[in-house]
Specification:
Elements: H1 8-52, E1 59-70, E2 73-82, E3 85-95, E4 98-106, E5 112-119, H2 130-133, H3 168-189, E6 199-200
Length: 201
């Protein structure tokens, strides 16, 4: 068999063939793994809802995506109304490492029942403490507070919350995400009702 000549058309052809093969393999792997990834995401959300609403079992009666303009940016919030309270998924794009996404649970009065950090890219050992730092019994505890009356900003900015040590930027981002979750809850979740299909968790 004659060796393929090393010229531009042949090199382009080989590269195109390799790209097509790699694209096909990636598409196949994506199709094979997508159901498992989706199932894991659904389980993580179900567990997150139970955590932030302090409930062993709950029924999701209502889910809605809400786009709100915050500081000139259109941000998407997800509202889950359940039989145990309302949870709102909120993302602040100004974390130290980028987006910081939280899920926050509220009771009818708007008090924070709990929270979980769904995604972040903060510095390990510093900003990555956000999932724990603001929990009940921790230095920056927000559980039980009502963002409508409490000043959910760091004490360095005149607020009521102790920032994570050496991670003021992450703390500000986290608290902004929680405040915006509350604002979305008050605007869209507090009295929401719908005939949407109920989901048991």
């Amino acid at each position: 068999m004659e060796k393929l000549k090393s010229n531009l058309p042949n090199m382009v052809g080989v590269l195109t063939l390799v790209a097509v093969l790699c694209g096909g393999i990636l598409a196949y792997v994506n199709n094979v793994t997508k159901p498992a990834i989706d199932a894991q995401a659904e389980l993580a959300l179900a567990n997150g809802l139970k955590t932030v609403l302090a409930a062993d079992h709950l029924t999701v009666n209502y889910k809605d995506e809400v786009v709100r303009n915050v500081d000139g940016k259109d941000l998407t919030y997800v509202v889950y109304k359940t039989d145990k309270g309302v949870a709102v998924q909120s993302t602040d794009p100004n974390g130290f490492g980028g987006n910081l996404t939280v899920l926050v649970g509220f009771n009818e009065a708007g008090d924070i029942l709990g929270y979980t950090v769904l995604a972040h890219a903060e510095t390990p050992g510093l900003g990555a403490k956000a999932p724990d730092w603001f929990q009940k019994g921790q230095p920056g505890c927000i559980v039980g507070l009502n963002p409508g009356s409490a000043n959910l900003t760091v004490s360095k900015d005149g607020g009521d919350i102790d920032a994570i040590t050496a991670s003021t930027i992450t703390s500000r981002s986290f608290l902004r995400a929680v405040q915006q979750a509350y604002n979305t809850y008050k605007e869209n979740g507090a009295d929401a009702n719908t005939g949407a299909t109920k989901q048991q968790n």
